[in-house]
Specification:
mainly beta; about 65% strand; about 190 residues; Porin
Length: about 190
C-alpha cells in the first residue's frame, strides 16, 4: 500500500509538471527548525518520553504556479525528528529525506500573500539512533499528511506546518512521528 501511495504521488507530480510547462514556476531554498514527538498508543512501551526533540530542517522547493492563487509545490527536505527522554538530555534521533508534495492555495495579494499548504509527504529514514547507538527495528520509510500556513513576502517566505506520520516508526509498535515545523525561505527564480 505504501508503494502504491508513493507511485501515485510521483505520477501525479509528473503529470502536473508536464501540464505546467506553460505556467510560471518558482525555485528556492528553505531552512528552519522542528519540534518532534512520538505519538501513538505504544509510545509508553518504548520509554519515558514526554519532551519534544528540537531538530534542523532544510532543503529546496519547486512551486508550479497555476495563476496567482493556486500552486503545486514539491519539496526535498532533510529533517531531524525523534523524541527526548523525560528529565534527561538523551534523545532518539531519526533523520529523514522527505518529499512533501503540497497544494498551495493563496489569496493572491501583491505584497504579503498568505496561503494554506496541504498534501502528502514521503520520507526515507537515513539515521536511527537511541543515545548514540544504532536502532535496527525501524521502518525505512514513512508516509505522512502535512497541513500549514505560509506567508509570501516578495521573494521571501515564512511557513509553519504540522506533519502527522501515518506509518509506524518501529516495526510492530503503534508509534508515529508528530512534527511541528517552522521554515524561512527564499525564491531565487
Amino acid at each position: 500500500m505504501r508503494l502504491k501511495a508513493i507511485l501515485m504521488g510521483l505520477i501525479l507530480a509528473g503529470v502536473l509538471a508536464s501540464q505546467a510547462s506553460a505556467q510560471t514556476f518558482n525555485l528556492g531554498l528553505e531552512a528552519g527548525a522542528n519540534l518532534s514527538n512520538f505519538i501513538g498508543s505504544d509510545v509508553s512501551q518504548l520509554g519515558n518520553f514526554n519532551s519534544s526533540k528540537l531538530g534542523f530542517v532544510g532543503g529546496g522547493f519547486l512551486s508550479l504556479n497555476f495563476g496567482q492563487m493556486f500552486a503545486i509545490r514539491p519539496e526535498v527536505l532533510y529533517e531531524q525528528k525523534g523524541n527526548q527522554y523525560s528529565g534527561t538530555t538523551t534523545t532518539v534521533e531519526m533523520d529523514y529525506i522527505e518529499v512533501p508534495v503540497l497544494l498551495k492555495i493563496s489569496t493572491g495579494l501583491p505584497v504579503v500573500n498568505p496561503a494554506v499548504l496541504l498534501g502528502p509527504s514521503f520520507s526515507w529514514n537515513t539515521l536511527a539512533q537511541n543515545g548514540g547507538k544504532n536502532i535496527t527495528n525501524i521502518n525505512s520509510s514513512d508516509v505522512g499528511l502535512v497541513g500549514g500556513l505560509e506567508f509570501d513576502i516578495d521573494k521571501f517566505l515564512v511557513s509553519g506546518r504540522y506533519e502527522l506520520g501515518l506509518d509506524n516508526v518501529s516495526t510492530g509498535k503503534n508509534v508515529q512521528n508528530g512534527t511541528i515545523t517552522l521554515l524561512v525561505g527564499y525564491s531565487f527564480l
